[in-house]
Input
Amino acid sequence: MKKRKVISTSSEWTFDLIERYHTEIARVAGQYRLSTYPNQIEVISSEQMMDAYSSVGLPVGYHHWSFGKEFLNTEKRYRRGQMGLAYEIVINSNPCIAYLMEENTMMMQALVIAHAAYGHNSFFKNNYLFQTWTNADSIIDYLVFARNFIEDCERRYGHEEVELTLDSCHALMNQGVDRYKRPSRLSLRQEQQRQKEREDYRQSQINDLWRTLPASNRATDSAANGRFPAEPQENLLYFIEKHSPLLEPWQREIVRIVRKIGQYFYPQRQTQVMNEGWASFWHYTILNTLYDEGKLSDGFMIEFLQSHSNVLAQPPYFSKYYSGINPYTLGFAVYSDIRRMCENPTEEDRYWFPQLADTDWVSSLDFAMRNFKDESFISQYLSPKVIRDLKLFAVLDDDTRDKMEITAIHEEKGYRYIRQALADQYNLGSREPNIQVYHVDRGGDRSLTLRHTQYQRRPLGESMDEVMKHLGRLWGFTVRMETVSEDGKVELTHETPIEKRKLSR
Amino acid sequence: MAHIIDRRLNGRNKSAVNRQRFLQRFKGQIKKAVGDAIAGRSITDIDNGEKITIPSKDISEPVFSHGRGGTREAVHPGNKEFISGDQVDRPEGGGKGSGGKASNSGEGTDDFAFEISREEFLNFFFEDLALPNLVKTQLTTLVQHKMVRAGYTSDGTPSNINIIRSLRGAQGRRIALSAPHRMKLQEARIELEALQKTGRGDTPRAVELKEEIERLEKKIEAIPFIDTFDLRFNNRIRQPKPTTQAVMFCLMDVSGSMDQARKDIAKRFFILLYLFLTRTYEKISLVFIRHHTIAMEVDEDDFFHSRETGGTVVSSALELMYGIIQERYPTSDWNIYAAQASDGDNWSDDSPLCRDLLIDRIMPCVQYFAYIEITADMRQSLWREYENVKETYPNFAMREIQTPADIYPVFRDLFKKANSA
Output
């Protein structure tokens, strides 16, 4: 056995020690070919951590009551000790900002550095969803711009007015992304068309005179030409930003800001399992490597393993602590199993994952991290062994039947079924209702019609009425919701009538 | 290489604005909670923060989501008894079986609870009472001053001259001003002495030195013994003196016509006076006197919650109050305040007696007497008699009120006095 030359034994941290641990962790991460943004590690107090928590992890945020609510909630739970808290907050930016809390022990700081500054960081940099949807180089600048812009609006138009707009935008925040259209795939023609649209819009703002000319011919023409929009639009906020008839320019900009921020979080909502699993896998692997090299003391490792297993605890379904599948556990299990299958494949693994067996595990893991989101990651990599280890089973709840049915359990004939069901559970398309802009009555009362395409007969939740009011506020005219059931029947499920007649001034 | 930055010294209250926004937005609910809290609290306990609870449906942020119904399939961990094809009952309360709805944020409570600070609590309380801002910020003072010594100054009245300091200054000045002359004088004397020793005491040089010595001695003498510049005066400044103790009499009619709603209004009235007094006095005693035909001294709980019936003789309470003042609260040691709440009913022969009692005996002892009549009815004899008291004593205030917002004007004169002092 090698002689141990541990970095430190005390549980107190100092800046010097953080620096040394970081150097070691960076070296090991380099061995495993983790590619990251440069790190910016910030030491903060617990109050600051609560602030960071309540602004949903944005380092710079505009003011809104909902963040205040979040803060009060966090504060209360922290005071009562319900929330062990915040091992880490890490921000998808370049450089990547990771927060360390001053109350943490040295072990905890090292754990957070490995977890956040190398695990999450490399995920942010390399996963395709993050690459497609977020721009780490400019996010901080954009947030600063957003905050200043909204503050400016508050001064000019009063914060109540701004708050109303923000409330409405927040209600639609999850509908601010084109799920199936990638932003970078614009063809040249579309690009030009967009540019022209923007130009037309600007023109219409400038040539105020034109609007007063009688335009009845044109209006009837376009109404006769059929539906607007020509194809259903799923990006509600974008549609409102571009086409809502009555919004002031500053309101459009606020819609845009909320949409952009929603888009920034969009990949995170779809990669929770992958992202947390990846970070947990790497803090585990990196610290174990350091231990094997003799750099960490036994005490450090015991403390570390305790924290690690707390984070990865998965209570079974009948426990009172059960609140769904722990994404840390699931992700960690899948990544660890990929490594196992690469290094020590069994017969079963060779049958299920021939592409993994006896390959270089670092590259295989890297591939798995880069090219998937939770849904596809699970349907690609969830192995029979993980299903068995977690004792997964699937339950079908059909409201037309008296009882629920256990459709599959962790056995030979159930693996594929469970894998499929679990992947679907993480599919944003089935988790959230599918709602699209269907029609605007441009020739008539300018009402906006949305269509909700039902998925497995699930209706919309009660909060729909409230959301529709928000939508009505942004649109300015009557808004409707139609529901398309699975057999293709269309039914009007909601209408918020708005009588607003703006007389020509 | 990573940057490691110490951000601990950066501002902590990044969320303060958002917190305020939240409180402002849910003002209505919070005010209601504060109102309930006041009803449940003791008067002396008003000066604390409060835990506020708001129904969480009021503050939820709506988003499009799936409701109950349809089919859903969920995967759960930890199977211990099921095999595929089993039929199971739906769990109570839609727990595990209802699938991917993990949005219940753990606690399972229906209400959103949080704490507001003492300042915030008082602000909400004041708001109900329609206090003007100036008063809110300076619910203070009625300052009495005392003079305290604060070092020395270079001017003042002759009676304040500090002799030791002045003379010390004068001596210093004399030494300083005469120093160059003394040096020359000493040199001259040494030289003269040397000349005399060698027997050259009559040389022109010696004569010159003698004259020089004489001249220098005169110069030193010419320095004044004391100059106006040297004078030092004892400095005294006015310092606000907290008057340390006060007693507050709460008088209330508890005859049958005072229902609970009226008592609640009266309670707010007493609370406001109490709060005002806490800003001014370190120690406040409370005396509760309730009366119908007979007056009794009771504790706070009885005062607000027990209910009596029968007629009303107000003078009984005033007499009891006067008796208690005589017995326990000498005016030399105590500042006495009184607040009386009633619905205006009195046995009509008794009202002139009340007036006389107030004018002759009570008003000379008290700092302030506030009377509120909680009624929508016609004014009765008590009100008319009290109007006479008001003319005689400016520190008597009276008001007819129907809502809590009417309470504050009763105190207006009191605050005015405080502000101009």
